[in-house]
Amino acid sequence: MSQGPFAFVAGLAGGLRTTARTMRRTAITQEYPDVLPDLPPRSRGVIALVEENCTSCMLCARECPDWCIYIDSHKETIPATTPGGRDRQRNVLDRFAIDFALCMYCGICIEACPFDALHWSPVFELAETDIRDLLHERDRLAKWAQTIPPPQPLDPAAPDPAELAASRKPARPARPAADGAAAAERPARPERPERPARAERPDRPPRAERPAGAERPERPERPARPPRVEPAERSMPLPRPQTDDHGAEAPRAAAPGAPAAPEAAAAPEAPATAGEDATTQVLPTVASDPVATDGPGAQA
Known about the structure:
single chain; Alpha-Beta Plaits; three-stranded antiparallel β-sheet; two-stranded antiparallel ribbon; disordered C terminus
């Protein structure tokens, strides 16, 4: 939404005022590459290699999150320098390469190196037309070691390192020797009583020697062990007495191993009917009505 010609004039005047203010300032443009920039001392350009400090411990290659460090080495035997000494072995560096196409400049390899073989260099001119040329070997990494800036001075208010503080600590004064008078004042240490001698153990009588040619006495024979008696077999529990439909007790089955019981008197068999099987056993029937034993109606 337009606010009229006055808003246009105000905006134009503000722009001209900014232009007039910057025209009186000096230009700070650096003509690169004729003029190199002044970089801070802790700039991260490339990673330089101090080959003399490298021991091929592989810590930098293991800690690298991008796996862009390649190391090859072999072992050499160093002869002993003293007679009777042992030979030593050391790792000799064959290859040390960094692929800057994969490197993300995190600096973990520099912090993980225990021998200060890797350092940051302020060199940043490593652009290539082919990505395969960003794999730099140890000869080029060693040339960048000459561009490593010197370490910054320590803060004057910072405490000294423990090693330096220990070296500056004054030595402990020697203990003065005791004079004759001071030695006489010191009470003598009481003598420790002697421990009583241990009672000697009486010697055992010598073992009687067997005469030559004597036979060894025979050992008495051991009595024969009595035969083992097997426990008697347990009898099976008798089954629960069974009754027929009229409440009479059915004959019990004989227990296994028990003597046979005398046969009971055979009950009179009822005549078989025409439709009944001849092999079916008919049990005697018992009257369900009790027979009175007392009274006028009792049988004699």
